[in-house]
Amino acid sequence: MSAPRLLILGGTGEATALARGVLARFGDRIEVTTALAGRTSRPGPIPGLVRIGGFGGAAGLAEYLAAHGIDRLIDATHPFAAEISRAARLACDQVDVPRLLLVRPAWRRHPLDRWIEVETVEAAAQIVGRVGRRALLTVGASEVAAFAPATGVRFVVRMIDRPRDPPPLRFYEIVLGRGPFALGDERHLLQRHAIDALVCKASGGAATEAKLIAARELSLPVIMVRRPPVERGLSVDSVDGALDWLAGLDEKPEARRTS
After folding, report:
1. How far apart are CA 32 and CA 30, in angstroms?
2. Is the dihedral of CA 82, 51, 96, 1 positive or negative?
3. If you average pLDDT over residues 233-250, what whole number do you get?
4. Is pLDDT at 146 greater than 80 in this prediction?
């Protein structure tokens, strides 16, 4: 009997931790492939097989699941990756593959936080010039262009990789970094660049929460882009919960295999 095949939709620290956890708990009893979108040039080491690149929407993902005999899928993508999460739901429904959402816990607002919550990145760009003059921008490389119309603001843009083309901002500086970030380092970053406003997405999790604590300590306003709604489906909020879900599946996946 061959091992069941698990596809992890990744690109997050939780996805990498899940791949490690599957190996530690199940060994070679589950074959793991982690799919990355390819947005970072140097992803960290990930146990098991790794696939880089998009699937071509729900139809392409369904075709991949069937062609590779995937028996179960865990969506551990970023909370703002709504498009791939929707595609995963549609694809798994189409080819009858059990699907689980690993949803990163949301940040809880502290009474001393000065959050200004908005619905979209574009809405954040519209108000940033009224909130601060030196803003730390941590919204992801693909969202930076939305801030091109902002005037009177000098941006410090944090990215994982240096972009091939300069961002379309009037005044900016790029700093490179990959979480998790320590509180002392985040505090130093804000003070060294004289940051008076922070712009971020409500991504949640512990890896990047330190910037919010540092902003709270310095009484800085935070323009916070709210999360999109979580995709429908069974969900857990921890790697351990995902591992328990895998352990509890008692189906016979080999009967569904096409390859």
Report:
1. 6
2. negative
3. 91
4. yes
Q: Is 64 helix (H, G, I), strand (E, B) or coil?
A: helix
What string of DSSP letters covers 191-242?
Answer: HHTT--EEEEE---SSTTTHHHHHHHHTT-EEEEEPPPPPPSS-EESSHHHH
Per-residue burial over 43-60, b = 16 or more CB atoms within 10 Å of its CB, e = otherwise: beebeeebeeeebeebee
Decide: residue 112, CB within 10 A, 0-12 exposed, 13-18 middle, 19+ buried: exposed
pTM, to two decimals: 0.87
- Residue 1 pLDDT greater than 80, yes or no: no
Q: What six digits make up the tokens of 146?
A: 């939305």
Q: Are 155 and 135 in contact (CB under 8 A)?
A: yes
Query: Given strand 114-118, what is the order of strands in its sheet?
Result: 114-118, 221-225, 197-201, 134-138, 154-159, 172-176
| 75 phi/psi in degrees, rounded to 5 | -90, 100
Q: What is the mean pLDDT of residues 128-155?
A: 95
Cis before 180 (ω within 30)? yes
Dihedral of the alpha carbons of 169, 174, 178, 184, in degrees to the nearest 10: -120
Separation in Å, CA 198 to CA 120, 182, 232: 15, 17, 31
**Cα(243)–Cα(21) distance, integer angstroms:** 7
Mean of per-residue pLDDT scores for the chain: 92
CB-facing half-sphere around the CA of 11: CA atoms within 13 A: 22
Question: Is residue 169 within 8 Å of 152, Cβ to Cβ?
Answer: no
